[in-house]
Design goal:
- This protein is an alpha/beta fold.
- Helix content is 19%, strand content 15%.
- It is built from four helices and six strands; from the N terminus they run H-E-H-E-H-E-E-E-H-E.
- The protein is elongated and about 95 Å long.
- The termini are far apart.
């Protein structure tokens, strides 16, 4: 090996990009491969999000209905049978708090929780949540427990 036969490693060299817009003699001057006229030939052109070549864009073609209340509160619903499962597994003994529900993956840490009356609760528990349905509250109290609203 000597200086006369040195060459870079395979794939190490990047091919130089096409040189455009450097006069008519280069063969790529004038329009600089952008074609004639139109938005794409101009400097500063950037296609708008959702642009469909002048056709009415999809987000404007589709009809819009209703209204979104920005003050709406969404509650994550937990049925009584899920709480009974926690008791059966030995996770909840005398109380079920938000922390218990979060640790067991039933709700997210920022969720508002509503206890629903689906299923059956046999254990006497103190259940803490943001809201209770009337049937859930009645079922918890009938089992000898307590429904605590936060």
């Amino acid at each position: 090996m000597n200086l006369s036969n040195l060459k870079p490693a395979e794939g190490a060299k990047q091919r130089a990009g096409k040189v455009v817009g450097r006069g008519q003699g280069s063969g790529k001057g004038g329009t600089a491969t952008r074609g004639h006229k139109g938005a794409k030939s101009r400097s500063g052109y950037s296609k708008k999000l959702g642009f469909e070549g002048g056709q009415m864009p999809l987000q404007r073609r589709v009809p819009k209905f209703g209204f979104t209340n920005i003050n709406r509160k969404d509650y994550a619903g937990i049925n009584l049978d899920k709480i009974q499962e926690l008791v059966d597994k030995g996770i909840a003994k005398d109380a079920v708090s938000l922390d218990t529900l979060i640790e067991n993956g039933l709700v997210g840490k920022n969720d508002l929780v509503k206890i629903l009356g689906g299923g059956e609760l046999k254990a006497s528990l103190k259940v803490s949540a943001h809201k209770f349905t009337a049937t859930a509250k009645a079922a918890i109290e009938a089992a000898g427990g307590e429904a605590i609203s936060l």
